[in-house]
Recover the amino acids of this structure.
């Protein structure tokens, strides 16, 4: 028994060390920082970090712009995530249907936007939205895509463009794992392509759809690159436009203790939303 245990430890130890160093340690350090505050003796005295208890969390829960940013990204997610995943599912079903010639080409073409770094994609779309720079001045001249009322959905378009192909590949991979015998049985029963997709394919790839939804919920609350770049194009995007941008701006002051408290609260909110969604989907599956 000793040899297998040693072999098991040999394989687990590298992961355990990296997981502790790059995941657990930063979380614990952020929690520690969030429980501290900085004190100064006099106006120009040296800054001393002392234990502050829940002082930073009191400031977080009293911070109106932070909770407004939470509401903003929740609205973003309620609209953008279903649209993105609906498009991803449609494209995956289209590739799996056999109606499309050159599936390898289209699979790569749909995935290419995900290979573009988020900052680069945001800059590119920012120029396309800008009335003075966009080649589509017939659109941008009549509709201000960077105005306070529209800029959130302009960013949603960027996120959708980047991540549709990524989510499509996850769903498409799940479709490829469905046994051919299931399709043969459906054909024998007289099911057409649409009926097969609705009654067989979509239910069988539901775990993949749930997975991509959880990823999208997490990504929505972590929205940073797009609003950070769009601040240079639109005055409607402030330093507290999204929760992650609030954390970044607060740490740049610098106020690392308050930024850490924002991060902890945001992480807890992300976990709660993700687990709540999983619970809802599990109950729906049990029925």
């Amino acid at each position: 028994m000793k040899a297998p245990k040693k072999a098991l430890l040999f394989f687990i130890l590298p992961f355990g060390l990296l997981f502790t160093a790059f995941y657990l340690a930063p979380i614990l350090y952020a929690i520690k920082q969030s429980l501290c505050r900085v004190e100064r003796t006099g106006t120009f005295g040296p800054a001393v970090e002392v234990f502050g208890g829940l002082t930073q969390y009191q400031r977080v829960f009293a911070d109106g712009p932070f909770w407004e940013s939470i509401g903003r990204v929740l609205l973003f997610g309620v609209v953008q995530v279903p649209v993105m995943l609906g498009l991803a599912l449609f494209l995956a079903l289209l590739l799996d249907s056999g109606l499309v010639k050159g599936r390898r080409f289209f699979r790569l073409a749909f995935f290419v936007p995900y290979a573009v770094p988020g900052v680069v994609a945001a800059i590119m779309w920012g120029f396309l939205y800008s009335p003075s720079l966009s080649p589509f001045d017939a659109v941008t001249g009549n509709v201000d895509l960077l105005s306070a009322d529209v800029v959130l959905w302009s960013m949603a378009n960027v996120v959708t463009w980047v991540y549709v192909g990524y989510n499509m590949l996850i769903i498409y991979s799940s479709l490829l794992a469905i046994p051919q015998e299931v399709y043969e049985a459906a054909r024998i029963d007289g099911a057409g392509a649409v009926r097969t997709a609705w009654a067989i394919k979509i239910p069988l790839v539901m775990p993949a759809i749930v997975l991509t939804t959880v990823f999208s919920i997490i990504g929505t609350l972590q929205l940073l690159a797009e609003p950070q770049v769009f601040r240079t194009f639109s005055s409607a995007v402030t330093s507290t436009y999204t929760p992650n941008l609030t954390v970044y701006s607060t740490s740049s002051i610098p106020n690392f203790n308050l930024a850490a408290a924002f991060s902890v609260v945001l992480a807890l909110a992300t976990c709660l939303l993700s687990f709540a969604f999983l619970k809802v989907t599990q109950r729906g599956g049990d029925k």
The longest helix spans residues 2-34. Residues 55-286 form a domain with the MetI-like fold fold (CATH 1.10.3720.10).
